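Bench log, entry 3. Co-assembly request; chain sequences pasted below exactly as received.
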Amino acid sequence: MYVYDHVDQRLVEERVAQFRDQTRRFLDGKLSEDEFRALRLRNGLYIQRYAPMLRIAIPYGLLSSRQLRKLAHVARKYDRGYGHFSTRQNLQLNWPRLQDVPEILAELATVQMHAIQTSGNCIRNVTTDHFAGIAPDEIVDSFVWCEIIRQWSTFHPEFSFLPRKFKIAVNGAAADRAATFVHDIGLHALRNDAGDVGFRVIVGGGLGRTPLLGQVIREFLPWPHLLTYLEAILRVYNRYGRRDNIHKARIKILLKDRGVDRFRDEVEAEWAHLRGGAATLSAEDVRRIESRFVQPQYSALDAVQPIGGPGFAAWAKRNVHGHKVPGYAAVTLSLKKTGVPPGDVTSEQMEAIAGLAERYSFGELRVSHEQNLILAHVRQADLPTLWREARELGLATPNIGLLTNIIACPGGDFCALANAKSIPVAEAIQQRFDDLDYLHDIGELDLNISGCMNACGHHHVGHIGILGVDKNGEEWYQIEIGGNQGETQPGAKPALGRVIGPSFARADVPQVIEKLVACYLERRDSEAERFVDVVHRIGLEPFKESVYGNAHQRAASRSRERALA
Amino acid sequence: MATLIKERRVVHESALSPEARVIRVEPGDDLASVAQELARATRVEVSFPKFGDGRGFSIARLLRGRYGYQGELRAVGHITRDHLYYLERVGFDAFELRQGEDAAEALAAFSTFSAAYQRA
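Structure output for the full assembly:
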């Protein structure tokens, strides 16, 4: 857990004072709507469909039990007693009052929290692998690098008014669990032949209405140059990124327009001036940040294989993960129980989860971009008792990595931008796949739902992705398959999904998913071949056929529709 | 008449002498083309056409760092007190505030934050 020093603390307090003043000036009519919008957004405050929405930063998804208790308190006092963990590893409150927000921020500051740069056209919360610091395949502890980037990007004087939002992801392990190919900048740590640490620099990925995979602009950037290189990229973007059209303002469009080679040349030319400058990192700089993280004091334990009944076994298989320290494991608390909106937690649950973290995991938690919570340092011997407690709280659904571990945006139930609802679709699918044996037999399958093309539910990188679309004022759902968030296992390249065909009414979606899954089960060569692997091997056609009939039938149905129209 | 802050004080602009040379830089301008004139400039104005248009921040950095300009660097356009902290840190020392912004009140904004994470 990162612990603030007096400078960190003072800065968040000064930010509260600044925002209090800005809110007052807005309410006094001294700031226009437009001006205040730009300012409130960079404090995480949106005006939503029914009420404001406040997005609270959880830097790189790392959270203490004390902070979670404060979030529970804030949700109860200023909201309706629950919060929503987002795919950006943040927490969103859906019903705060505008005039209360400065007070909420002041409360958060007492536990080293804030909402700084959780929205707006600036550098956003840096995200990372939720197994940072504990993964058996670790190269570096990405939390340290995320904190270095967090500090550098906080109130950066040159890059606080960018053409559009800017998201950086850092991955510190061999497997890419941070989706580095779908961020504005993805940084993937690696070691060169000499054993030195550096980063592969990936630029221009992103979802939204123009989904694109990032491109590698540098295979190996030695770590001392991390910040100067980021400055070079951001400067090229700040100067030349489009500002005339909000839909073409992300760095991915600049990179696409210029082509990767010209873009790289421009960055390198800029970096030639910045290289070796003030922002260059020394070993001492890194050590200083590292030393601010309180590390768990592990005991010397032998690895144990706890045994329990079938319920425990299913949970252990899906929700318990490897740890680099013998005798310990990481546990995912599933926020994907059927009937509960994905990522939603009540204040009571938050307090109970804080208690679990204190008893089982050194008081530390992580938020995953799949909208679950992780206890990262659990003694293997404690797993059976932890499982029983988590089950009592409704947090032990054994579905991590499976079809019902659905990523979904808040959708039309809350969001002003949505074309369609996401939460009821997620629930209907979860109900359809409620047979655990069948679910486990299907194996790993990421199913992601977005309520509009802004793609907050990451549907483009779901193995199955569902997108809410508006057809003459009605909610319809388009389905994509074959997306993949990144190389979470060797050989599985990041990919964007492809649309299978015309969209469906909400009631038909679960049945379509069933047909796609049945098609997969028929064609997989073994249980090890996942849904997405089969899509990549055999292509879309067999899946289309399973849903819409063969090409001949599809043509017949199209001409029938035309005749009716 | 917009209000002017120079070196953290509210000032009233006196008329320019006939020899004065003011260079105006628009966000999309190529800086290499103004570089030669910098040495003889009385001041350089960098334009911020909209509240959220941040290109001028990079331009200031380049004028001060890359091109070594040391004279008055003035931010003009849609400037409120909310920009001042950042503007000063990238090298501006003069600020023409947008209509309706109270310059005396705005002075406090220079000390919004008492420390910075960035070294430069």
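The domain at 407-564 of chain A is CATH 3.30.413.10 (Sulfite Reductase Hemoprotein; domain 1). The CA atoms of residues 339 and 427 of chain A lie 6 Å apart.
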